[in-house]
Design brief:
299 residues, alpha/beta, Carbamate kinase, eight-stranded mixed sheet, four-stranded mixed beta barrel, 14 strands, globular
Amino acid sequence: MIVVDQDKKRLQKKASTLIEALPYLRKYAGEIFVIKYGGHAMGEPELALQFAQDISLLKQVGIHPVVVHGGGPQIGAMLERLSIDSEFIDGLRVTSKATVEVAEMVLGSICKSIVADIQAAGGKAIGLSGKDGALVTATKMDRKITDPNSNIEKVIDLGFVGNPTDVDPRLLTMCIEGGNIPVISPIASGTDGHTYNINADTMAGAIAGALGARRFFLLTDVPGVLNKEGEMLTELDRAAVNALVEDGTISGGMLPKVETCLKAAEKGVNGAVILDGRVKHAILLELFTERGAGTLIRE
């Protein structure tokens, strides 16, 4: 009798979850979601499998996910194996011709692995890079820094690190209409014909803007934007972000992530969400529950 009662409670809980999700399923049906996937969520097999299941589920319920993945740790590991030195400036890897060739190889392998995981979970995925169909065109990125001794501003050559300056979403639209889930590596051709490595957050935000995505998700290794007491802030607009940057609450590695979200919102994305990819089914919790799971940023 106790077992029956426990089974009944478990089934009732599942039914309640479905009932809570139903309005959101209706709300988001037919919409495009762009997800930047990386960090620990991509490196841990169990989380990677759950991510693939979640992405496949989104497609099955009528939502159109587009995945842009990173791969910094994997690139670093391969460079170390090949005895190619790495240098970082303001969090960006100085990328030589040899380094960008390694990055393209490693990112291509990661892309195929994600595609395989999604297809094993019941989805239909296609692996792409920014080069395919001239999806993304890049320009060389230079970083300016101020010498603390002379107070003179200098331009630092980052090598083959690029900015996504033009996105042509037609190939992605064709993939989506064909029932496929695009999985994209952050590599693109430049206007000068060279190959450029692009920060995956930046690439994902640019693609989200070009597609007019309903949501842009940045999966990170932190719960979201935190206040000074360590509590997660559930929703922010540009004015609130500016105030938090000014008082130092938003700083360090969170700064470029928030800026990427604001740029995506500026380009027409309805909302960008920073959430913890280490949490099981984080995207589903954010989308289909009243409380959500991350920080929603709007223009």
